[in-house]
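Section 3.1: Structural characterization of target chains.
Under the original work plan, the team committed to producing a structural model for every single-chain target entering the pipeline before any wet-lab resources were allocated. The record below documents one such target. The sequence was received from the expression subgroup and is listed exactly as submitted; it comprises 198 residues.
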Amino acid sequence: MNARAKWIIAASAALVLAGAASVAVVATSQSGGGSSQTPTADQTPAPVPPVVAPTTAPDATADAVVGASEDLISSVLSVTNTVNVGDIDAVLGSLQSVASPAYLSGVEAERMELEDQGWTRSGEVVIDGVETVSYDAAATPAQATVRACLDSSGVVIRNADGDVVPGGSPRAWNIFVLEQVDGAWMIMRQTFADDPAC
């Protein structure tokens, strides 16, 4: 299995988390029957509304923070999944107030990797549980780490020839580190568990 394919499939899974159900990833295909990830010259990227960060009280319970975390991650990733590769500037602009530069760099790198390889991605990822790993309300700023079990068995990566690129395990824990800034939660970074099986 190709290391690049593993990275793209893992990054794709991390970037398609949405709510407590599933979210459609932009459907693509190399020849007919789908919309290309790269817009043609006469296409104008659709405007992307800014994502609003959820808030909690400074002394919020861990359950309240998990709820706010799900809302935030859901909103951020629904934006990254509804745009084409060529719309990346609009996506990054939409997410600037709710995600760190490090997280946004990961979003941009994943999009560029697909485009550079001529690869396409289609399908759905299903969330199968979200848990609190840690929550420190006394920290400055307050910090929380949550993990989400994502089932990406419905995601298909195709190479430039239209052949399916084999991937790793379809179910994996994705870890999101959040910080509370002026009451609002922001995604600081996203990582993968040492033992990702879930």
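The longest strand covers residues 124-136.
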